[in-house]
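One-letter codes give the sequence; the fold follows as C-alpha cells. An example follows:
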Amino acid sequence: MGFKYYISLLPLLFIALTMGAQDNAVTFEANLSKEKLGINERLRIEFTMNRDGDDFSPPDFDGFRVISGPLQAISSSWVNGVRSYSKTYSYTLAPTGRGKFTIKQASIVIDGKVYKSLAKTVEVTAAVEKPNDDMTVDDYADNNLHLVAEVSKTNPYLNEEISVVYKLYVSPSIRVSNYRPLDNPKYNNFWSQDIPVQRLNTENGTYKGKAYRYVVLKRVVLFPQKSGKLDIEPLSLDVTVDVPTNKRDFFGGRIYSQTNKTVSAGNRTINVKALPTAGKPTDFGGAVGEFDFSVTTSKTHLNASESLQAIVEVRGKGNLKLFQLPTPELPSSLEVYDPEHNENVRTTLSGMQGKVSDSYTIVPSFKGKYPVPSISFSYFNPKSETYHTINSEEIMINVIEGPANSSGTMANNPINSKQRVVTTGNQFNFIKLNPELTAKNSDYFFSSKYFYLWWLLPLALIPLAIIFRKKREAIASDVEGNKIKKANKLARKYLSEAKKTLGKKDAFYIALEKALHNYLKAKLKIETSEFSKDKIASLLTEKEVEVETKEGFIGLLKNCEMARYSPFSDVQMHQDYDKASEVISNLDKQL
C-alpha cells in the first residue's frame, strides 16, 4: 500500500464528494394549496427549504389579506446514515377581490447566500357553493385524485391495434398509501392482451393544466373485432388516501387524515371503421397492418421418399395472430402432411410485431419435376388506407431418383385433379371356359373328419369360456380401473367433439374444457366438485409433473374461461386444440 494505491482512490473520493454535494443541494420553493379559488375561500402558501436559513423575507401578498402566519415547522431525521431536513414558513390568506394575482418572490439567506422562490399566479373567481374551509376529507380527495384511461386512437379500422394506458394522477398535496382493483374491464368485442407493468414508477406530469404525480397501473393492447361504436368498460380502484388537515403536531408537522375513495376511469367509446369494400381483393383474409410475404422450401433437389419443408410465412406489424395464412396448391403426386403452425410474435403497446408461418412436410413418390405455383397474400394497410397484394415466387422441386410415374399423370397436375387408375398387369387374367364341374356325394360330410371336429369343438371351448368369465369378473371387480377407462373414453369423446366444433368459439371451448376435466378426473382420481385451477396445480406438482406441462394445462383452462368474454380467432382455436393433444400426451408419459 504505497503512494500509487492512494492515488487510485482519488477518483472514488471525487465521486463520493460530488454525490454528497448533489444530495445536499439547497432548495427553496413556494407551494400553493390551489391555483384557482373562490373569493369566499382561503389560500394556503408554504415556503419550504431543505437547509436551515436566516433573514426570511416574505413577499407582498397583493390582493390578499393575511389570516395567519408565518407559522414555522421544522422536520429533521436520519435514515441509513443520511440526514433529511425541512423547514417551512406557512401563511393562510384570504382574497380581497376577483381577478388574477401574482404572489411575488420570497427570499432566505442560507450559508451566507441569498435564495429566492419562484413567483406564483393565483386566479380568484366568484364565490363557490362549498368553500375549502367547509370541504370534508372526501371532498379534498375527490379534487386531488384522478384515474384516467388514455386511448391511443378513438377511430381505428376493424382489426387495427389500439392501446389503453390507465394512469392514477395524485396531487402533491395528498398521499396514496394503498390501492386495490375492484372491477377489471372485460373488453367485449375486442381481442385483448395485457402488457404487464413490471414496476410502479412515480413520474411527474400535468392533469388539466395542474402539476400532478402519476403512476401507470395497467396497459392493454386491443384489436376491435366488430365495426361501429364499441364501449371500453371502466377500471375501478379502491384507494387509501392521506389528506392534510389544518392541524399541526407538537413538532409543527402537518397532521393527515386517512380516507378510502373509489375512483374509476370513465367509459370510453371507440368508433371502429369498417374496412373499405372498394378494391378489396377476393383472397383477402382479414390481415390488417404492414406485412411481407414469402413461400420457401428447405430444398429443391432430392430423391423420392425423402422429405422437404415448404414454409408459408408472413412477417411485419399488425394483427398477426388473427388471420389464417394462404394454402399452397401442390401437385397431386406429392404426399403433403398437415402444416405445423409457428408463431414468433412480440406484443407491445404499439401492437404485434414478428412473424407467423405454416410449415408443410412434403414427400415425393416418383421421379420428376414438380412446380409449386405462386400464391398470393393480401392485407389492408390502415396508414395508407389501401389494400396490398404480394405474390410469391414459383418454386420447382426436382426429384432426381425414384420410380417413374407409370400412371402417366403429369407431375404438375393440381391436387384436386383426377388421376388415371394404375394397372399392375394381372387384372385381366384368362378365365377358364370349361370348368369340368362334377356333383359330389352329399353324404360325404357326415362320415368325414370335419363332422367329428364340429362335435368336439364345444368341448374345446369350455376352458376358454371359463378363462373369459374369470377375466370379466376381474375387470368388474376393478372399480377404480373401470372409472379410469370410462373417464378416458369421455375425454376422447369430448376432444373429438371439440375437433368437430372448430370455428364455433363457444361450442369448441365448452367441449375442450369438458375433455380436460374428464381426463384429469381419471388420472388424478378426484371428483368434479374438487376442480379448481389452484387444486389442479397443486395436485400436478405433487405428481411431479413438469412445470411446462402443468402451465400448459392451466393455460388451456384459462383460455376456456376467457373465451366466454373475449373473441378468439380460428387460428387461436386450432392452436388450443393442438396444445390440448400435446399436453394430454405429455401427461400420459409423466403420470
User: Anything to note?
Assistant: The chain is about 25% helix and 40% strand.
